[in-house]
From TrEMBL, chain A:
Keywords: Cell membrane, Membrane, Symport, Transmembrane, Transmembrane helix, Transport. Residues 462-471 have a biased composition (Acidic residues). The chain crosses the membrane at residues 58-80, 87-105, 111-132, 144-164, 176-195, 238-262, 274-294, 306-326, 332-353, 365-384, 396-418. Residues 434-459 have a biased composition (Polar residues). SUPFAM superfamilies: MFS general substrate transporter. InterPro entries: MCT, MFS, MFS_dom, MFS_trans_sf, Proton-linked_MCT. It is found in: Basolateral cell membrane. Residues 19-420 form the Major facilitator superfamily (MFS) profile domain. It comes from Poecilia latipinna. This is Monocarboxylate transporter 2-like. GO terms for molecular function: monocarboxylic acid transmembrane transporter activity; symporter activity. Belongs to the major facilitator superfamily. Monocarboxylate porter (TC 2.A.1.13) family. GO terms for cellular component: basolateral plasma membrane.
Length: 471, 302
């Protein structure tokens, strides 16, 4: 049914050309989104001294920012589907800029929670969500590579922001630094400007979604339901992905938070301990695009979910082995492997969701994923910290994180065996029923439209369809 | 290197081998100094060198004892002496004979004031040395980066002595003007608070003249320990300049990108309209590439 995929998926993705500019824009946007909450910690000490707050009160700034960034996912999805990525990213960039500039005039900790945490968090949320969506619109055949390159923005910007922030702090104090940081974040508007819309968004999605609704102006609740699109939960692949990811996120951040402290407890001096994180970030920078490249290869791409599970198991195993690393060179080795594992997972984390959900359902799906991931992300490090407090030994932290992540990875691996089989059966069923009513089949088999297209691309079908020729 | 707990030893303890009681110019007669408390420090030395830090708050009689485990040349008689600040203390030379394969040197020093602090070394001639560094507790936290504040704002300078170290008797704040050291007191613009191990100097309504080096001094009975802080006062204009620069850059880039896109798409639309007379082509396609347009048109036809 050649016309149906085109209508459902929209125009054929560009897979190059201007797409690479879009990847650059996404790289910047995602880079700021993930690195800002971490890079802000450099300002915590001076802010704490000036405003007279406790360390935990200050640390909440980052937590609120991260929480809002992830929790605002569904709202961002709605806006992206309605207006497209470009306006959303530009507004996001503007909000980030405004948040930092207003924060620089702050004189109370609650004011900072509002400015940086909430306004800043919303800005980053728009940036993240919309950038991921536009990649899925521009790329299909080269999408894993595009995703890997875009997600590499996170370590690159962290590497870049950390020393810049130190420099700014020394010259302008925390207020001036926040002002200038706000200016830098306005570059997300530039990133948004390059995100040229691929097609008009208002027409196709609405027509598809409201094919079941007779009125185009339904009640507000019906509209809300259509926009939020909880139909993702009906997809077993989505549920599998979600469970695996929640487990990963729960264990992923605690080792980063506690690595320096662990190294210091092993007798490493503070400066060298901080250096471990830089090593990890540096390795991460290169691993992400490389993983994207590997995932793009024709052997791996159809079975990309397995690569994702492998990456997770690898990451978890590295953590499980960490307590054995008692000397500094071994800890550096751990940091390197940690960077590799972490980079692999994050290069694939959204690519796999796109792979499962396809172009059309990705925006809503990613919103749901981020809001659910909010909880393990906020609970993980404190839970790990609690383990350290109770047992007074860091090894249990690494055992817990490693164990949870490895279990998540194994779960994903096993369940994806089942899921891939299920999808193959569905595809075979869909192919034979092509000539019949295609609209009904759309709903059921849309669970891996991208996969179907891929398989068609990879192994050209014998049927003489015009679409195959044009591809 | 582990610090041994300080025991209270009677200075007239039995010591057959050393005769450090012989009075030298830096050593006061013990009887007149009996009003002072007595501390002792015994350190074992294996190898050629060692450094031991000794923290002192109050004037005291300090007995320093070095016990050296010797080396391969088991010499029967070795000369031992003491040095202060690199110079040998007069009449401190004594012969040292091994006792249970250990060589022992001990001396009592009368530490009353700041001049008596410093570097004391017990020397086993040509064999080994042990340095005792007598000092007041150091303020650990060194702030190398300047504290930046803005004209008209207030700023809080903090100095902290580690909790594990003894509490200073009091704290003083000084401002350095060239070579002068001016003490700051509680005044209209200055608020000084002292809470045990911490002290805070709050300078209100700062101006550029307030820039410079400040000293906080932890006062102990025997001496004072100081730490430096650098305050830098700038106007709002300083960070505003780079900010405006970046703002201009962002506006320019966004404008350029959008203008380029508009002209690019106008060209494409003109070409597409020229090539294909089919009205379906003018359906809202946004900024698609030409090939795509033809592709999707063909698809719709089938």
């Amino acid at each position: 049914m050649p016309p149906a995929p085109a209508d459902v998926l929209g125009p054929k993705p560009v897979d190059g050309g201007w797409g690479w500019m879009v990847v650059l824009g996404a790289h910047i946007s995602i880079g700021f989104a993930y690195s800002t909450p971490k890079a802000l910690s450099i300002f915590f000490k001076p802010i704490k001294e000036d405003l007279g707050a406790s360390y935990s009160e200050i640390a909440w700034i980052s937590s609120i920012m991260l929480a809002v960034m992830y929790a605002g996912g569904p709202v961002s999805s709605v806006l992206v589907r309605r207006f497209g990525s470009r306006p959303v990213v530009m507004v996001g960039g503007l909000m980030c800029g405004v948040s930092m500039v207003t924060a620089s005039f702050g004189s109370s900790i609650v004011y900072l929670y509002l400015c940086i945490g909430i306004i800043g968090g919303w800005g980053l949320c728009f940036n993240l969500n919309a950038s991921l969506t536009i990649i899925s619109k521009y790329f299909l055949a080269k999408r894993p590579l595009a995703n890997g390159l875009a997600m590499a923005g996170s370590p690159v910007f962290l590497c870049f922001l950390a020393p810049v922030n130190q420099y700014l702090l020394g010259h302008f104090g925390w207020r001036g630094s926040l002002l200038i940081l706000g200016g830098m974040m306005l570059n997300c508007c530039v990133a948004g400007a390059v995100m040229r819309p691929v097609a008009r968004h208002s027409a196709p999605p609405k027509e598809v979604d409201q094919s079941n609704n007779t009125k185009s102006k339904g009640s507000l609740l019906k509209k809300a339901k259509t926009f939020v699109d909880l139909s993702s939960f009906k997809d077993p692949g989505f549920i599998i992905y979600l469970v695996g990811n929640v487990m990963f996120i729960f264990g992923a951040y605690a080792p980063i938070v506690f690595l320096s402290a662990y190294a210091v407890s092993r007798g490493v001096e503070e400066y060298s301990a901080a250096y471990l994180l830089s090593v990890m970030g540096f390795v991460d920078m290169f691993v992400r695009p490389l993983t994207g490249l590997v995932a793009n290869s024709k052997w791996v791409r159809p079975r990309i979910q397995y690569l994702f599970s492998f990456a997770m198991v690898f990451n978890g195993t590295v953590h499980l082995l960490c307590p054995l690393m008692r000397t500094y060179p071994l800890l550096v080795a751990y940091a390197v492997f940690f960077g590799v594992g972490f980079g692999m997972v994050f290069a694939l984390i959204f690519e796999c969701l796109m792979d499962l959900m396809g172009n059309q359902r990705f925006p809503s799906a990613v919103g749901l994923v981020t809001i659910i991931e909010c909880f393990p992300m906020l609970l993980g490090p404190p839970a790990a910290g609690l383990l350290v407090d109770i047992f007074d030994d860091y090894k249990y932290l690494f055992f817990m994180c490693g164990g949870v992540i490895t279990t998540g990875g194994l779960f994903l691996f096993v369940m994806n065996v089942y899921n891939y089989n299920r999808l193959e059966k569905a595809n075979r069923g869909r192919d034979t029923a092509q000539n019949h009513n295609t609209v009904e089949n759309q709903e059921q088999a849309s669970s891996s439209e991208a996969q179907v297209e891929l398989m068609n691309t990879a192994q050209p079908e014998p049927e003489p369809e015009p679409t195959e020729e044009t591809r | 290197m582990k610090l041994l707990p300080i025991n209270i030893l009677l200075t007239l303890a039995i010591c057959r081998l050393t005769s450090s009681e012989t009075v030298g110019p830096t050593l006061m007669p013990l009887t007149s100094a009996s009003a002072l408390p007595t501390n002792s420090k015994r350190v074992h030395l294996t190898g050629k060198n060692k450094v031991e830090n000794v923290e002192l708050l109050n004037p005291a009689n300090l007995s320093l004892e070095c016990i050296w485990t010797g080396n391969q040349n088991k010499q029967p008689n070795i000369t031992g002496f003491w040095r202060k600040g690199g110079e040998e203390i007069q009449d401190s030379r004594v012969p040292v004979a091994p006792e249970n394969q250990q060589y022992r040197l001990q001396r009592v020093f009368n530490i009353v004031s700041e001049e008596h602090l410093g570097n004391y070394t017990c020397v086993f001639e040509n064999e080994a040395e042990l340095d005792f560094i007598l000092a007041v507790p150091r303020i650990g936290e060194k702030r190398e980066k300047p504290i930046v504040s803005y004209v008209g704002d207030f700023v809080v300078l903090t100095c902290k002595m580690e909790e594990t170290k003894p509490v200073p008797r009091t704290w003083n704040w000084f401002k350095i003007n060239g070579t002068d050291k001016e003490q700051l007191f509680e005044a209209q613009r200055y608020d000084i608070t002292v809470i045990g191990h911490k002290t805070k100097l709050k300078v209100k309504d700062v101006s550029e003249a307030d820039s410079g080096v400040y000293h906080c001094a932890a006062v102990y009975n025997i001496s004072t320990s100081t730490s430096k802080l650098h305050l830098k006062v700038i106007t709002i204009w300083e960070p505003l300049k780079p900010f405006l620069g970046i703002l201009v850059e962002v506006v320019i880039l966004v404008t350029v990108i959008l203008i380029y896109e508009r002209s690019h798409s106008k060209k494409k639309e003109a070409e597409a309209n020229g090539l294909n007379a089919d009205p379906k082509n003018t359906q809202p396609q946004g900024e698609d590439e030409e090939a795509e347009e033809r592709t999707s048109v063909r698809q719709r036809k089938t």
